[in-house]
Amino acid sequence: MPTKQDLLDLQFIDARHKLIDLAAFLDRIDRHPGAADFRYAALQAAIPILLAARPDRARAVLDALSDHSPDPIPKATFQGALGAAQPA
Amino acid sequence: MYIEPHAHMVSRTTDDYEKLAIAGCEVLCEPAFWAGFDRSSPAGFFDYFRQLTDYEPKRAAKYGIKHYCWLCINPKEADDPVFAREVMALIPQFLDGPTVLGIGEIGLNKNTRNELAIFEEHVQLAVDRNLPILIHTPHLEDKLKGTRLTLDLLASFSQLERSKVIIDHVEEHTIAQVLDAGYWAGMTLYPQSKCSPNRAIDMLEVYGSERLWMNSACDWGVSDPLAVPRCILEMKKRQHSAESIAQIVYHNPRKFLSQSPRFVG
Question: Which of A46, A55, B6, B14 sits between 20 and 30 A of A24, alpha carbons compared?
Answer without folding.
Answer: A55
